[in-house]
Design goal:
Number of helices: 12
Distance between the termini: 45 Å
Bound molecules: zinc ion
Strand content: 15-25%
CATH class of one domain: Alpha Beta
Largest sheet: 7 strands, mixed
Radius of gyration: 21 Å
Strand order of the largest sheet: 8-7-6-9-10-13-12
Helix content: 40-55%
Length: 350
């Protein structure tokens, strides 16, 4: 297949495809998965398709051609609404295959100890519970749904507090492990259709680092809206572009990029998408931790956020200026062989 369908140079020259590198220092399962994915993209086993923006426009600029593992991952920003998306991106069928066969391995989870990971997620779940109950007032016996619930660890504190909890996830191993370890019965393998089958309506739905993986944003959000009570809440966390790059990735744009993410959001572009799907913002920050409520009003897609494109692009350029000195320093150390020397010394010390 041709990978030249976008036909423009990316915003940052170091993010061209030829610069893609397999990251070192990961476990053997991760390295094997990364190699497999790269080959499947190159041979066309993973197929790509062009998709227009949520707002309907196809007028974009290219940000990057690669993700942090070096995979082909053309990321564009829409000039009309400022939403960032992968385009072209893997087809839904290819993504399903990717999640089933490679995803958790590629990002290192299969190399880590499941018990430790579970404990880590239990702590994260407790923090999220504390955060949410500070912001919301749930009725007694409230129904709590989570789409992409992993082990079910974020539902666990809600269950302990007496709420009626249900979760779904495509990851078979983690759901089975979660059922055993948490004792929660209503953890299902699959997508939001599994929550429809419960015939329950949610007081709150949680989407924790899930929305950025959806292929059909509007379709998924409208489905979720249908399984919520009138006035129901939806909690959304995603890696917010305007916070994550500086605070988590040390200003390196590449740190945010992974080919499993079909979209990247700022609070402005997320609010736009949510309002078009019948939700209104209750609380949110650029990190993004946010709460939305079902609304009777649907924003029209043509009313795009004002100057969001300019705001996001100027942030990305600012981050790149901040990161470049470090990038060139690392390149110099690599050329002189010093980086490898430091790494070896560190490994010996460990
Ligand atoms: Zn757009």
């Amino acid at each position: 297949m041709s990978f030249d369908s976008v036909g423009h140079k990316p915003l940052f020259s170091r993010l061209v495809r030829s610069n893609g590198k397999i990251q070192v220092g990961m476990g053997p399962k991760a390295q094997k998965a990364i190699k497999n994915i790269g080959e499947k993209i190159e041979t066309g086993e993973y197929e790509f398709e062009n998709v227009s923006c949520f707002c309907g426009s196809s007028d974009d600029i290219l940000i990057s051609e690669i993700d942090r593992q070096g995979f082909y991952y053309p990321l564009v920003i829409c000039k009309k609404c400022g939403l960032i998306r992968a385009n072209p991106r893997m087809t839904k069928a290819s993504y399903i295959k990717f999640y089933a066969e490679e995803y958790r391995n590629a990002y290192g989870e299969s190399d880590s100890d499941v018990d430790k990971l579970f404990e880590h997620r239990i702590n994260q779940g407790k923090q999220r519970y504390d955060y949410l109950v500070k912001h919301i007032d749930l009725p007694t016996n409230a129904v709590v749904f989570e789409v992409g619930c992993d082990f079910g660890t974020a539902l666990f504190p809600f269950a302990e507090a007496g709420y009626d909890v249900y979760g779904c996830d495509y990851g078979v191993e983690h759901i089975e492990c979660g059922r055993k370890k948490t004792g929660l019965k209503n953890l299902f393998i699959g997508g939001s259709e599994k929550l429809i089958e419960t015939n329950k309506k949610a007081d709150i739905v949680m989407l924790h680092h899930v929305l950025e993986h959806f292929c059909d944003l509007e379709g998924e959000l409208i489905t979720i809206r249908k399984i919520m009570k009138p006035g129901g809440l939806i909690y959304i966390a995603v890696p917010g572009t305007l916070w994550w790059i500086n605070n988590i990735c040390g200003a390196n744009v590449l740190g945010l990029l992974q080919n499993a993410h079909t979209y990247q959001f700022s609070l402005g572009s997320l609010t736009y998408v949510m309002e078009c799907c019948g939700f209104k913002l209750i609380y949110g920050n650029e990190k993004i931790d946010s709460l939305f409520k079902i609304d009777n009003v649907f924003r029209k897609k043509q009313f795009v956020p004002d100057r969001e494109f300019q705001r996001v692009v100027s942030y990305l350029k600012r981050m790149e200026r901040k990161y470049l000195p470090k990038y060139y320093l690392i390149k110099c150390l690599e050329m002189l062989g010093i980086k490898k020397m430091i790494k070896n010394m560190r490994q010996k010390r460990c």
